[in-house]
Amino acid sequence: MNRTVRLAREAGGGQTRYKGRPLRGQNSPEGSTSRAPRGSRTPPSSSRFPRKSDSSRSDRRPESRLSPHSGSTPSGSDRNLSRLPRRTSEGSDRNLSRFPRRTPESDDKFRRVYEKNMYSRTKVGHSRVYVNREVKDKMYGRTTKAREVESDTQERRSRKWEEGGSRERARGREIDSGNLERRSGRRDVGASRERGDHSRGREATMDTQERRLGSKEEYRERRERRRNREDEDAALPTAGPADTKVRPFTAYSPPLSPGLLQSVTELLGTNPPSPIQTLSLNYFFPQNRKSNPRTKKSSETLLGAETGSGKTLAYLLPVLQSLKETEQTEDKGDGKQRFNSPRALILAPTHELCRQLAASVKQLTHIDKLRTVCFSNPIPKGRKRATANDESLYDEDVTPEDYEAQHGFLRPADVVVGTPSKMLEMFRLSDSVEEKLDEQGEVVIKADYGESKGLDRVQWVVVDEADVSFGKNFRPATRALLHFVREARLKALGRSKAPDKEPVPQDEITTPEVQVIEAESAEKEYTNVTPTVTDVPPPVSTEDTSAAPAEKPTTTTKVDPTKAFTAPPFNLVLSTATVSSSLGTQLAVYHPRMIQLLSPNLHKLPATLRTEHVSWSGGNRTADVAAKIFSIWTQEARAMRLETGKRYTSMDRSKILIFCNTASHAEKLGRELGEKSISTFVLTSESTLRRHGSNKHLEGFLKVADKAGDQGKIEAQAKQTWKEQDLEDKQPVVPTAVLITTSLLSRGLDFAPSVKNVLIMDEPQNMVDFVHRAGRTGRAGAEGKVILFGKGGKRSESSYLQELRTRAKTLRA
Ligand SMILES: Nc1ncnc2c1ncn2[C@@H]1O[C@H](COP(=O)(O)OP(=O)(O)OP(=O)(O)O)[C@@H](O)[C@H]1O
Question: Which chemical reaction does it catalyze (predicted)?
Answer without folding.
Answer: ATP + H2O = ADP + phosphate + H(+)
